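Final report, closing paragraph on structural work. Over the funding period we assembled a curated collection of sequence-structure pairs, and we close with a single example.
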Amino acid sequence: MDMKGRPMSSSNESSDMNRARRHFLGVTAAAAARIAAIGSAVSALPHSMAAAAWWNPGHPGGGNANGRGKGNGGPMCLLSGTAILTPRGQVCIEDLRIGDLVNTVRGEALPVKWIGRRAYRRSSQMWNEDVVPIRIRRFALDDSRPYRDLFVSPGHAFYIDDVLIRAQDLVNGRSITRAVPDARDTIEYYQIVFPTHEVVLAEGAPVESFLLENANYEGFTNFCEFARLYPGDHDASMAPFAPFVGYGGREHLKALLRLATGGLVKVPSPLQDAYEKISERGQQ
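Its predicted structure, as stored:
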């Protein structure tokens, strides 16, 4: 699919570092403007309603029930060439076929139901930032994962500390940045579909499989194949493997409290904890 985009400069990583510096401040600025009003409104509600106002686990980043709906957040895929762990060893995602077994973090190998694919071509010297992969450098997550640089789409989620976090929320300008791996003119994304939402190992890192929901498979180039093979799944939806967390209402407030207290108040936040831990590793 041809897409017009915006220019990517040679100082892409520098730009990511600036973006990362604004990562924390940016999400708190909007919350700061509303904090007094929100606090007043919440305090006036019954306890059960106040809890709901402060936390809606179904909307970490807006959109549908998990912020992953069609047209929200761009593609949710792995770049071609990504190695996936299977019982027969590492296999590039584009070489997987329907029926192949793939290892999952549940401890069992499951058969592939379908492989979705989507390609974006650079029309000139420009890329649309929304489709530029995010590079997770070797050992960015811990001492062993990923075992080589991993490239995923911005909306693709990692399974970290029992929650799912999108790659775009982990960008820190050092170990996790937006980057095209080479001078290629086409970016090819692939995604694995199982009967259920799963977590697989891509270059050793735990990443989600496709979360089928509200016919969002239609975002893939080969969606007609899925519709033909599984006509009864047109409106099917899967339960998420784990909760998604992202910078929505409650995470804004958590970030604001941490900033306002200089980190003295440690409001539990799996997202911010993961971001800070990974960012600190990137500075070593």
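Residues 12-43 form the longest helix (32 residues). The first strand starts at residue 2 and ends at 3. We thank the funder for supporting this effort.
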